[in-house]
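Example record used in the benchmark description.
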Amino acid sequence: MKKPVRKLALFTVILFAALFINFNYLQVVRSESLQKDPGNTRVLLNEYQNQRGSIVVAGNPIAVSEPTSDKLKYLRTYPGGPAYAAVSGYYSIVYGTSGVEKYENEVLAGTDDRLVGNNISDLFSGRDPKGGNVVLTINPAAQEAAFKALSEVTVGGAPAVGGVVAIDPKTGAILALASTPSYDPAKLSTHKPSEIRDYAQSLSDQPTDPRSNQAIAENYPPGSIFKIIDTAAALENGVKPDDQLPAPDAYKLPGTQTTLKNYNGESCTSSGTDTLLHSFTISCNTTFAQLAVDKLGEDKIRSMAEKFGVTDEAWEMPLRVSGSKLGDIIDNAALAQTAIGQRDVRFTVMQGAMLAACIANDGQLMKPYLVAETQAPDLSVLDKTAPEQFGPRAVSKEISDEIKTMMLSVVQKGSGKKAQVPGVDVAGKTGTAQVAEGVNDHTWFTGFAPADDPKIAVAVFIKNGGGTGGEMSAPIAADVIKAYLSSLKGGG
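Model output (structure tokens):
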């Protein structure tokens, strides 16, 4: 009889010891990570007892908490609506947080260490603690123009899947970040879990979930916008804009029986040779494929791509931006395909905008950032973002000036004419990326304006848009540029 009792007592001691260890593990080791977990519903429920700070654009909230009469004292609302969903994200009792709501949660929730003094003051004064505000760099005219133009595009009768990113090339401040299809963050942030789940299911049932941020989370073959990198590498290695280069109707990929052709099988010139400037203007595939193999090589192209910010690693601004990559280049055939932005090359729309921003800023890429400043509840500034360089200079001012001239030629005379804005010199590069047999091509445009004093760099991507980048994406870039420059003059 004593033996079973001893076993039971020992088992009970072990259970209590396990419980004690687990309690201390949760309280000490994992407390901070659990506190910061965006899916921790208990944390969210506690946060609902205090007023969450606002996400602000140009002095107006795009996300704000309103008092309610139910047990969750505040309701998160989104005056910015679907146009800003790719930026704001959502704040949900079911699904946690995303977007700025996630990455600036500590300031918004009032749990940031810098707000301790405010919280103690509120405690002694009897006021309910409040969260701080997050002020974004977004320009409302540019953002709304980007979202409107994207939303008006249909592919096969369905809303287009695409993204737009606009950057101030001199500072890296993000002026627009739009993604379609979009969603209403307010419907994920109600106090009715069943309605939230039903709405989330309706988003999941769509061919492309609108919660997927096409501007920064997804990456795609960039097509001919990659030729900016080829051109920078060529100029840095002694090729001149007026140098004659091979421009055959078809280029046989080294070591294969496969031929690489120009878009729609077109000829670039009747002579079979062309200048670098003209080949760039009309986006001649065979010129750049052969240039990469004969004069540049993998190392020069890969090194130049890295200087333009192309990295496999994700980075934050503070939203997470997926990596862009060249992929493995196993031989010269792969190199030729890489040089025209095909094969394993993948860019985010953010990376597309960074190409133009780097050239616009005389060859120095600035790190993109979305948060201008964070504020305490009394609107005093907690932190202000200072512009910083994104790695070493990509190219010299002299080379960037030559590429600017070539990008001007694309919009004035070449494949990017639909990016023209009356009274403004726009510089740009189109891209049309093949996907698979029988599948519509992706379409791209990246550019900046005004060319002589760049104030905005913008990239536009439409998934399986069909047509060309000049037809589908360039007009959207023109709308964004026009809206932004008009806003600087007080016109919006």
